[in-house]
Write a structure and sequence with these properties.
alpha+beta; 4-stranded antiparallel sheet; 377 residues; binds manganese (II) ion; Dna Ligase, domain 1
């Protein structure tokens, strides 16, 4: 789950990281009010769950409350990378001397979290990582020992941080680690962490990703989920316990098992097609879950054909077939559908589908080729 900038910064602040004064607003009038309270000058920041807001024009500095209202009107009517802006953060405007990058994520290869920092912070950290990776300092964190003081000193030295800021930097880095580990985050990032004119460190931007698998022990964080920002299909999929990721292709995929789903997508690509989604209905899915999955696939207007690849183990093929029939009845799909059923009760399943005008296939290769052909007609 992605958190908004204002949500991430509030969490950081709870752990003692200095953030600018400010509040979130849903209307231009409210933005004016907040700017007024902040003393006039303020920065208006679009709250959307995508990066690069600054470059897209979603961050503007207002010189007074009138200006804040006007800029907020403008930003609240924007779409950034397809997402409408529904809220803006109105923050005290900062005077920036230096922009630092500081973040923690999981390094899967090293099997532990890694703290990364760079003196070349700001909007283009991805470019820094690509072109001058030596400018990014990395320190792995032992998950049991946590981040150690000597490590934060190594980082401070590595990014040439002025000595007089080392103590504050140490506190911020430790707080970020605490925020990361206690909230089961997979990313906690401050970009930029600035040195302002008063020579103080302040977190100007914040970003957190929370591990969805840990949500059950963070009821407070679950409330922060912004359904408006999610594709409706993803909200729907979560409700039914389906793993669904929308992609850009034309062949909808319904598969039981993550590995089998990956394989199906690979084989579709092998035969020249593009999958429209990753979808794992999981083991033992009953008819209702299958019907929900099918509705999700078919609401994507890019879908020109659907491939069902079901390996009946715990999941029974006849149950899946029943689900498909229920969904067909409700959704009345107009796109061709290719089905490959093997395993438990495959014969019964196939019989159920025989009258439903579906294209059947024996092997995955056969099914993928038929789906690719059906999608390009
Ligand atoms: P992002 O583009 O989504 O990462 O948004 P950020 O919050 O990181 O802002 C992008 C850039 O806008 C920062 O790197 C700063 O250069 C600039 N910026 C953000 N807030 C302020 C501010 O209060 N004052 C000034 N002068 N610049 C700001
Ligand atoms: Mn940023």
């Amino acid at each position: 789950m992605k958190l908004h900038e204002y949500q991430s910064k509030l969490i950081f602040s709870k752990y003692g990281i200095p953030i600018p004064k400010g509040r979130v607003a849903a209307t231009a009038e409210a933005a004016r009010q907040i700017a007024q309270e902040l003393g006039g000058r303020a920065v208006i920041k679009a709250q959307v769950l995508v990066g690069g807001r600054g470059k897209a024009g979603g961050i503007k500095v207002a010189k007074d409350p009138n200006d804040a209202e006007q800029l907020a009107t403008q930003i609240l009517s924007m779409e950034i990378k397809g997402l409408p802006v529904r809220k803006v953060l109105v923050d005290e405007a900062a005077s920036i001397e230096t922009e630092i990058y500081l973040g923690i994520t999981n390094d899967r290869a090293a099997r532990r979290p890694v703290m990364m920092a760079s003196a070349a912070g700001g909007v283009d950290i991805e470019e820094v990582a690509r072109e001058t990776p030596e400018k990014i300092i990395k320190v792995h964190i032992d998950p049991l020992l946590g981040l150690r003081d000597y490590q934060t000193r190594d980082i401070a030295a590595g990014i040439d941080l002025p000595r007089e800021l080392w103590r504050d930097f140490n506190a911020i880095a430790l707080a970020l680690w605490k925020a990361y580990s206690e909230n089961d985050a997979t990313l906690a990032e401050i970009n930029p962490l600035i040195i302002n004119k008063e020579k103080k460190l302040v977190a100007l931007d914040g970003k957190m990703l929370i591990d969805d698998n840990a949500m059950f022990r963070h009821a407070d964080l679950a409330e922060l989920r912004d359904i408006d920002e999610e594709a409706p299909a993803e909200t729907e999929a979560r409700k039914y316990g389906l793993s669904y990721i929308k992609l850009d292709g034309t062949i909808g995929c319904m598969v039981n098992g993550a590995g089998l789903a990956m394989t199906s997508m690979d084989v579709i690509k092998l035969f020249g097609g593009e999958p429209a989604n990753f979808l794992d209905i999981g083991g033992g899915a009953g008819a209702d879950k299958v019907a929900a999955a099918m509705k999700i696939i078919l609401t994507d207007p890019n879908v020109k054909a659907v491939l069902f690849n079901i390996f009946g183990g715990i999941t029974r093929c006849d149950e899946v077939a029943k689900g498909i029939l229920v969904a067909m009845d409700e959704v009345k799909p107009k796109v061709p559908m290719v089905v490959r059923l093997v395993g438990t009760n495959a014969e019964e399943g196939r019989k159920l589908l025989e009258n439903a005008h579906m294209i059947t296939a024996e092997t995955l290769a056969d099914a993928a080729q038929k789906a690719v052909k059906a999608a390009t007609k």
